[in-house]
Amino acid sequence: MGKNKKITVIVLAAGKSERFGQNKILYELDGVPIIIKTLKTIYKLSNVKNVIVVCSKENIGKINVILKNEKIQTNTITILGGITRMESFLNAINYCDINNFSDEIIIVQDAARPNTTLELYQKGIKSLDIYDAVVPGIKPNDTVKIIDNNNIVIKTINRESIMNIQTPQFFDRKVLINNINLHKNLVNLTDDSSIFDDSSTQVKIIKGTHNNLKITNKSDIKFFQQNIKYGIGYDVHKLIPHKFLTLGGIKIDYPFKLDGHSDGDVLIHSIIDSILGACGLGDIGSYFSSEDSSLKDIDSQIMLSKIKEMVYKKGFEILHIDNTIIAQQPRMNNHLNKMEINLSKTLDLNVNNINIKSTTTDHLGIIGSEQAIASQSITTIKN
Q1: What is the pLDDT of residues 118-161, one digit of tens each?
Q2: What is the pTM of this model?
Q3: Do 251 and 280 reside in the same domain of the chain?
Q4: Which of 171, 194, 224 is the last residue of a domain?
Q5: How many CB atoms sit inside 10 A of residue 112's CB?
Q6: How far is CA 227 from CA 53, 211, 222, 354, in A?
C-alpha cells in the first residue's frame, strides 16, 4: 500500500521570485522562513527517507544555513536547480538516479506553499494505492476565456471541465521515470504532472484547498496574516509534600509537588486550555477527564503533545504562547529558560515564540502562603 512505501520529497525552491520582489521562500511569516514552514509539514510524514531541496545559486547558501540552524533529523539535501521549473525537477530526478535512491514514491512540492496540510499529503499518498499519478486541484471561481494576441475573446471555457492544479503532486517512481524517458521535450512544461499528458497513465485529481495558496506576490502575504485567534488558559493546584516539583515539564528541586489527577503541571494545563480556547475546541477536561483512571499521574507533556497533533490536523498553527507562573515559592527565574526550551521541543515551536514569566502574590491568599501555584497562558494561533 502507498502509505507503507518509502518516499522521496522534491521541494522546488529555485525560482527567482521576480514578482515578489525578493526571495520569497526566505521571507519570514510569523518569524519563520516560508521554506521552513513548508518543510516542517513534510517532516511530519511517515516513511519520508529523503528530502531534496532544489535551490538557486543565489539562495542555496542561505537555505543551508537555515537548515543547519533547524537541526533537522530527516535526510535533507540541497542541490542546484535550472533555469526553468522542469529543469530543476529533472535535476532532482537525476540526483536520485545517480545516488541510487530506491524510494517507491516521489512527491513534488512548491517551497512557496507553506499552508499544505498533513491531511492533503496523506490523502495523496493513499491514492497511490490505486493510481500512478495524483495531483490536488480546485475549480476556478472565475470564468475562463481563451483570447488571441490582441486580447480579443475567442472562446469561453466551461469551468466544470477545468481545474487549477496545486502541489504536492504524487507519483509512482517507476511510472514517472518511464514517462520522463518517453518525453522528448520537457523543459517548457510548467506543471510536473504534464509529463503524463498524451500518455496511457491516468492522472487522478484529488480535492485541493484554497488555503493551499502558492505565494507569488507580496499581496499574497496578507492571506497568511488573516485568521489570527487568541485563547486564554488558567489553572491552579495546591502543593503537597513530595521529593520534587514538576512544572513546564522539568523537575525542580523543591519538597512539594502540585496535587492533581495527572502530574499537576499547572503551566502545561493552562497552555493546553489556551490552545483549545484559541481553536474553539473546548477545554482540557473534554479530552483528559479526571475520572479516567488510565490518566492517573500521566505526564502532562504527553497530554500537550496529543493536543498539539490534534489541532495541527484540524488546520491550526500555533504562533506564540505567553505565560505567567504565579508562585510565592520556589523562585522561578533560574528555571524559566529550561521550561521554554523543553516546551518548544514538545510543541515543535521556535523557542523564541514561547515566553514564560513569573510573579508572586506578595504573600496574599493561598498562593502567597505557599500552599498553591497557578499559571495563566495566552496562545496565538492561525487557522
Answers
A1: 889 999 999 999 999 999 999 988 899 999 999 999 999 988 88
A2: 0.69
A3: yes
A4: 224
A5: 24
A6: 29, 11, 10, 20
